[in-house]
Structure formats: C-alpha cells, structure tokens
Amino acid sequence: MKLSRRGLLKITGFSIVAVAALPRVAFAARNSLRGLRTGVQPGNKTRLVIETANRPSYSLSYPTNQLVVTLSNTSANNNISAKLASDALVNSITQTQNGDKLQIVANLKKPISEIEKSSILLLEPNGDNDYRLVLDFKAGTPNATYTTSTVAPTTAITASRKYIIVVDAGHGGKDPGCIGKGGTREKDIVLSVAKKLKNKLDSAGFKTYLTRSDDTYLKLAERASIAEKRKADLFISLHANANPSRKMKGFSIYTLSEKASDEEARKLAEAENAADKIGVEGFTQFEENIRMALSSLQQHAVAEMSEEYANGCAKSFKRASIEQQPGPDVRHAPFAVLRSTIPGALLELGHLSNQSEEKLLRTDKHQNKLVDAIVKSVKNYNFEV
C-alpha cells in the first residue's frame, strides 16, 4: 500500500487504508512555527510576536481572558519555548494542532478588546528573523464574541494626526559628498530633493522638519539629535551614491545594523560615517538616556519598524519604475546617522558616478518622481505599531 499526498486511497492486494485516519498535517502543512515572544511597548501595550517560516494566513478570536491566533496550513513546533516579558499581559502561551491549523493560545492576565488593524503588522524576513506577525494590545473591555481574519495585512495609514517626519539632506557645507563627473555635488541634489519632499509631505498632512534647509555642515550625531528633539515618528536620510564602476546605477535603501549585510554596504557606511569621523562603535555622542535606548535598537521595535518602512519604500520606488541597484531590496550597515531611537532609513537616490544617472538626478522631473515615491511609502507606513 502507498499513500498519495492528495489524500487518495491506494489499494494493494486486498488492503484498503483511508488516509483520513492519519494526521492531515503530515500531508498538508507547509508553514512552520519558528518563534514566540512577548514584550512591552509604549502606552502600556503588550506586543506578541509570532515568527513563521513562510508568510502566515491567520485569524484572531477572543475567548475570556485569552487571545487565540489560528494559523492556517501550519505545523506546531513543540521545541519552541515562548519568551515572555514579565510586565506583559500574557501569562503563558500554548500550541494546539487542529488538523492543518495551528492554534496559538495566549492566556491573559486581564481581558482585552479587539485588536485594531492598525496594531497588526506583518514583517518581512530580515537578518536572522523569518516572517513575523506582530500584534499590539492592552487591557480593555472585551467586545462580544468575534473573529477577525486575514491572509496578509497591508495597512495603508493616512495621517489621522500630524505624524512627524524628519528629512535629512546628507552632507552640506564643507562636506560636498560625492561629486559626479559633470561636477554635480551630492549635497546639492539631496537638499533639492529634501525641500521638495518636505513640501509634499506637509501637503499630505504630515509635519515635516529638515535637518538642514541650506548649505550647512552638520555632524551626524546632530542630525540624529534633531529627530530625537522633534520626537519624530520617522527619520529619512537622503544621499546619492558613487561606485568605482561607472556602469553601476540605481537606488538602494539601508537600515542600521552593527554588522553590514555585504561588503559594499560596509564600505558605504564607512564612507558616510567619515563625514565627521564618528566612531561606529559605542554611542558616546548621545546623551545618556538616548544611549540606553539605543542598546536595544537591533532587538526591539525600532529596528523592526525601520525594516518595515525600508521594505515599503523599496516597493514604492519599484512601482514608480525607478531603477534599483542590483542586490537585495534593503541592506544593512552601521550608519552613524541612523543611531537613534527613531525608526528610519538611509536612501541612496542614485549614482552620481554614472554619467546618465547624474544627469537624471539633476532634473526636476526625476527629483519629483523620487519624491512622489517616498511620499507614498510614508503614507503606507504603519505608524501605529
């Protein structure tokens, strides 16, 4: 006798065996659980993170003092021990396999109300992390029994309040940045784009600040400090690239990481950091309370939110048919300007070392195209998580 993956009966001699008698998950499950953890977010919110090998399809239900997350087509992993934060609302987490569905039950200290869509986020894989379903919630009056389901949340957020964006035009003053063969200076291109971006973001309902509005030199720590002082929701640092190969062209997007994702990212970070010789080890440039917050940057919400914005921005650029530099959508490196408690990304808008792209970057038409793509990425970014 042999069994087929589609659940059909196979007959050998006089023996007939029904596949249904065996666990369906052995044939149907394609996704798998990789991790469970909780944390505490600002506003006394509990964060539950469910990590899976593939993009999850899920539903939520709310029995008394419980949050149940049902993952379709997913197998349990009993080798995983949930990492629970002591101050979170979750007492314990259990896994229950029900056919090809996995139920993750979070037992709560207090009842909660329905989790709003704006507090649900699906993060793409990055670094050592797989797909992460992120749920933020706090104690509240429970609603009637209900179930919320979705395949993959993609939440477009409009500015229900004036979210604060700090736009950083890289270089400036005595630091021209890279210079194209035609004499185009990076500091001039990014300042022009930054001003256009501020105008369009303000018109879209955001509150936007520039780190510099003229040809001023700023240290990298000063730029990050402006975002901190403005209590920004998002920090966007604009740059233009250069490459030893004159043929290289296209945008690239970076987030902060102590370890560069590749050799090119490492060299770029070293070049950008050399603007004021900031050491990328340690955080002595910042006030003590900021240094303390930075110590958990790679492990907690800021890093995840930066990654989410960067991925969304890359998609926005590609949808606008803006050419991308060969390689991954988002890269990682220890950029000093991104050392902050504010989620952010560094955008290399193109290559001044490429003669055709240098000419393109000088035009209002292309600059507006870049700005429109960035504005869309900001509008689509989930500020509420």
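the 2nd protein, sequnce then structure:
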Amino acid sequence: MLQLNIIRDNKEFVIERLKIKNFKNAEQTIEEIITLDNQRREMQKQSDECKQKQNILAKQIGSLFKEGKREEAEQKKQETATLKAQEKELGEKLSEVDNNIKTLLLSVPNLPHQSVKPGKGEEDNEVVEMHGEIPQLTDKALPHWDLCSKYDIIDFNLGNKITGAGFPVYKGKGAKLQRALINFFLSEADKSGYLEVQPPLMVNEQSALATGQLPDKEAQMYVVTLDNFYMIPTAEVPVTNIFRDCIVDKKDFPIKRCAYSQCFRREAGSYGKDVRGLNRLHQFDKVEIVCIDSPEHSYEQLQSMMNHVAGLLEKLELPYRVLRLCGGDISFTSALTFDFEVYSAAQQRWLEVSSVSNFETYQANRLKVRYKDDNNKTQLCHTLNGSALALPRIVAALLENHQTEEGIRIPKALQQFTGFDIIN
C-alpha cells in the first residue's frame, strides 16, 4: 500500500508511474485520495480543537464550583456537552473518511521502479540475459505429458478422477523426483543463508490482505468459506506475515527465510496449450525465498536472490533466460520483477519457473513491518521474494530436455537426492 505522504507530496510523479502499470483512472483515484485526506486532516483539526476547548472548560468548571458559582458552572457544563456531541459526530465522520481512504489505497498498485518500461503485456517484456544451449532433440522426442505416461511417473487422469483437472498424481520415480527437487532447493537455500520455516497452508484474511493477495487476486484463490481462510497461492504469504506488526532489529538485516509448501491457484481463464500436462496446475509444490532488508540495500538483495535462482538452474543443466517485466505484466504489488524462464525442448517454448521481485515499502506498509534507523526513527522495511523454484515446469523441462533413447537422465547435482541417475 502506498504511503499517504508520498501521494500527497509527489502527486504528479505518482500518477505518471501508475500509468506505466496501465492503472486506469490514475488521476481520478489519486485526486480523490488527496481530497479525502484533506477532509480528514481538517476534521482531525476540528476534533483536536474540541478536545482542547473541553479541557479548558473542565478547569473553569472546577474553579467555578470551588467559588460557589454553580449557575455559571452548569452553563459551562452545557457547553462541554455540546462540544462532546460535536467531537462524537466528527469521530464518526473521521472513521468513515479513514475507511474510504483505506479502500482507495488498497485499490492502487505499487509504483514501478524507474527501470520498468511501459508495455501492454508479456509480449513487451525485455530479455536481459540468456544462458545455456538449447537442446537439440531427435524426431522421436516426446513432450513431458507423453513421457509421464510412458514411464508411469505422473498420472493426470487419476488426478482428474480424484479431484479434477490440474491435480496430478505423482508415482514411483515421479514422486521421488518431486521430493528430490524439494530437498535440493531447500539444501541450496540453506547454503545461501536462508532459514527454513514450515508455514501453514491456509491464512486468514488479514494475512492475505497484508501481502497484497487481497483484494487484487481474490478470484484466483481457493477459499475455505466456513472459516474464511484462504489456501495459499505461494509461501510468500505466510512467511512474510511472520513479521507483520513487528519492529525488526536492523542488525539482523538481511532477514532471509525459505519455505517449501504446496500452493493452490484457481487459474481461472487459463486454457489451451498453456495448461496441458504440468504447464499450469491448481496444486503444485514450490520452494520460496523471502528477504526483508533496509531500503539502502534491498536492490543488492534482489541481485543476490537472482544469482541464487540462476545457480539452481545451472546445476539442473537447464537453459534459461531472464526477463525484466514491463509495466503491463508486472504484478500489482511489485516495484521491479525479473522472471526466469527455462526452455522446454519438446514443446519448443519458454516456460516461466521463477519470479524474483522487490516490493520496496508497499507490502511493508500493509504489514507494518518496520525498523529503527541510525537516528532511532521508525522506518518501513523493504520486502522481497522469489521462487526458488516452482516444481511443475522445472519437472516438465527436466523430462523433455534430458530424455535419451535409454531413458530420462537425471542431472548430476540432483542424483544424491533422487538415489538414481535415470528414469527408464
């Protein structure tokens, strides 16, 4: 959530940056927020004046009673009653205005970083890095959904029977490959200084609101309606909420956490080749990395997180590219996001496997996660997160890129976790 003082002091800049994100009615919304804030400030001033007058009258009433001037004292008490009524009315109006301001602020996305370029969607994203050689497969090469059937490692039909489309069943070496990747990702995160946590898979409304899933992504979330809990779309939500309403010690920066979790996304509106096989699931496994740092060092941490993700992909022997997302594709809450995509040789297309983002103070303002600076002033932290990594498309690329006539080769770095070097 944007800070009111930033909107108030930098109105034109805020509107200009919001247009980069294609935020509709940017001028109207920002003007409405400023108008309401001016009303709030004026009402707060009137409320403070009411309290001040009541305090003065209280002293006068006490003196008048001591002097035996009861009639004058009663008159002053009537004035006090009138002021209390005014204060109550102002308080109710203030509460209403505060709620209106908050509702509007929640509808405004984060400001994109200066390096974020305008664009309508993913077609306008900028490729900033390319790594690895594209595998050259034979004419007999199969897409991963056929490989899953051939080696009986992932059963999509069985998952459809048990639950529905997008909920596969992993079997034998397919299940072991999943577990191996999770352990590999967690082990690498530990080496990089991330403290592992195991969070709940459901969160309450306040947690979903604090990290920006609500109200922006409500349609994509599974809701446990009886208890008003939300199934997490990513471990970012519960892990970042660990620090909600906290003042952290700056000597602990950077605060680094990682978590493995199952993730749940409705993926409403997805169809066609984008959803076949493991390309887009409703339930999937992912290891998430989260970082909290000071504004001065958060972009150093962003680069460090990107280096970590790159290292994972290189150890998995997968060709990948890095994209800087444009204004039309960057998320509601992010200031700057880099996507990592691996090349799926049998499908002959790039598949997104990670997003690494800096949210600057946007999430922190919702979370109220703060620290004391060198002058002992309370400041908002910067929050960051990244997928390290999401499993489904990694598995798809591993199966397709590493297929041979003898079977599917397991990358050397992963073999100590799988216990086997080939799927056949």
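The mean pLDDT is 95. Residues 4-107 form a domain with the Helix Hairpins fold (CATH 1.10.287.40).
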